Structure formats: structure tokens, C-alpha cells
Amino acid sequence: MAEAQTRKTRKAPVRGKRKLSFKARNPADTKERILNAAIKEFSEYGFLGARVERIVRGSGISMRMLYHYFKNKESLYVAVLERVYQEVRITEQQVDLGGSNPEEAIGRLIDFTFAHFAENPDLINLVMAENLLKGEYLKRSELVPSMSRQLQESMKEILDQGAKKGTFRADIDPVQLWISIFSLCWTHLSNRHTLSWMFQTDLSEADWLAARRDHVRQVVLAYLRA
Questions:
Q1: In this predicted model, what pLDDT tens digit does every residue of 13-50 receive, in sequence order?
Q2: Could you tell me the fold of the domain covering 78-224?
Q3: What are the φ and ψ backbone dihedral angles of 70, each rounded to 5 degrees?
Q4: CA angle, residues 180, 191, 176, in degrees to nearest 5
């Protein structure tokens, strides 16, 4: 009897709302953190030297979470290459290449390219490393060629406009021109350590870079003029 009474008077456990000890997942934010950590890792160590474990630590996630978004190291590396190329193209589209003066449009494109390369050393490291791999992983991307076609079309519009005005020659290949601009804005950065020693000049010094940018503009525009 006493035992039955005890069972009746015993209080039932309180079942209130449980406090969650984790934050709701934000897939876009998580993927962004993975890519940012991966860009640094692949830029510093290349594809072969990069370690997924360091990317996991750098992005503050679990290994399982990384493989939820990217199935393997190769697919993550391709995504990194696409990201750095995409950043160039997206930012490039913000440059005003219209207007009535084709020379000014080309000048703005040169200034943008020159500054973007200087401000994004990870891009330089990644492209140089991928060239050593003979473009093996970039060839897996369909996004990069499509973005490059857009650039080619924009360049052709500027050149056609300049030719109609009699400002530019009419026989200029937009791809050849872009590769020339790319090279002129790139070489002093990709080879700055050896060139600085060869010529006993600091190629990272602000005045030298300003003079280099002006030189690039003069060389390209002199070639374009009719």
C-alpha cells in the first residue's frame, strides 16, 4: 500500500524544450570557408603538396563535412581554380569598357588587369602551379572556357569600335591582344625575385610598379593605333 502511494505521489520528470548546443548550418557560408582555406593551401603548397587535413582545420569544419561538399581533393582543387578565374572575370565585368573612346576602354582594362594581378598573389601561384601540371585539372572545368569566351567577345567589340573610328588597326586578334596584356601585367610578378636580383631593382616598389603600368599602356596602345 505504501509503495503504491509512493508511486502515485512521485513527480513525473519535467520534459521542457531542449536547448540545442549547435548552430543551424549555413551551406553557403560553410562552402565559402572551405574554398577560402583551400585557396590558401593550394596556393602555398600546390596540388601535390596540399593537405586536406590543413584545409579542414583552416575552415573550422569536420573532414566528413568537407567531403559532403566536395567528393575528393581533385574536385576541391578544380573548384578553387574556377573560383580564382571567376573572381577575375566578375570583377572585370565591373570595369567600364563602353563609351566612345576605345583607347580609354583598353587603358581601363590594362589598369584593372595590372592591379588585380598585383593584389591577388594566390592567383599567380595557382596558375603557375597548374601550368606545371600541364593544365591537367583546369581541363576538367567547363566554366573557365565559357568565361573566357565572354572576355573574348568584349575585347572584339572594343577593337571593332576602334577600327570603325579609324583609331585602331583592323587586323587585331582579340585573343592575341589579351595574351599580350596578360603577359605584360604578369611577368614582373611571376618572376619578381629573379628579375629583382638580375637588375638590382626592387620590382615590388610602388614607383617602379607605376612606371611599369604606364609602360604597358604605351606598348599596347602603340601597337593598336592605326
A1: 444 444 433 344 688 899 999 999 999 999 999 999 99
A2: Tetracycline Repressor; domain 2 (1.10.357)
A3: -135, 125
A4: 10
